[in-house]
Design goal:
single chain, about 200 residues, alpha+beta, Alpha-Beta Plaits, five-stranded antiparallel sheet, 8 helices, 5 strands
């Protein structure tokens, strides 16, 4: 019969696996305690947590969570990085840390039911983060609206100027043909509006 603390540990790992957007497996052999703390801090900033767990318990938790294909990577000194928010940001943090600390090895990842190779984790790290992508989408959506607002403002400003000129000419008693000359310089939509005003 399993000991209660092992059952609890398996339950905790399973819950993390189920609630995470992705999980990344790393070999941490050779990292100093200080380096592991730095890695944990970097991952926390990306919305992830880094846990060193017993591989037998991790395998059992993965089976319970329905996570398949990771058994071959759950060997040796392996730690799991659970991405709770943005898998791209977590992959980026791991890749950047492994550049400065070559002893950290990216073994695999698990995202949307698929096992990722180290190369695929590296490619994932090269994608822009969700915040950057959302900012770009917002900027792209904002640009046409800004243009439209400028066009509408210029239309009303130009139309007001034309109407003011027409009123001045009317008050001064100038013939209506002068007004038509002014109107012909306008865009077709503006011309129609001025002609309707004249009638």
């Amino acid at each position: 019969m399993p000991r209660p603390e092992k059952v609890q540990a398996v339950t905790e790992i399973r819950e993390r696996l189920e609630s995470s957007e992705a999980v990344f497996l790393t070999e941490y052999r050779g990292l100093s305690v200080k380096a592991v703390q730095e890695l944990r801090r970097a991952l926390r900033e990306s919305g992830a947590e880094y846990k060193v767990v017993k591989m037998t318990l991790a395998k059992r938790a993965a089976d319970d969570a329905g996570v398949t294909g990771l058994d071959e990577f759950l060997v040796g000194p392996t730690a799991l990085a659970f991405a709770h928010r943005d898998p791209v940001a977590t992959a980026k943090a791991l890749k950047e840390f492994s550049r400065a600390n070559e002893v950290l090895v990216l073994k695999a990842g698990y995202l949307s039911g698929n096992v990722l190779t180290p190369e695929e984790v590296s490619r994932l790290a090269e994608i822009e983060s969700r915040d950057v992508l959302l900012a770009r989408i917002a900027g792209a959506a904002k640009a046409p609206l800004h243009k439209a607002a400028g066009f509408i403002a210029s239309f009303t400003r130009d139309a007001a100027s034309v109407f003011a000129q027409l009123l001045e000419k009317k008050e001064s008693g100038a013939p209506p043909t002068d007004a038509i000359e002014v109107v012909t310089e306008l865009e077709p939509a503006e011309t129609a509006a001025v002609m309707a005003e004249e009638e």
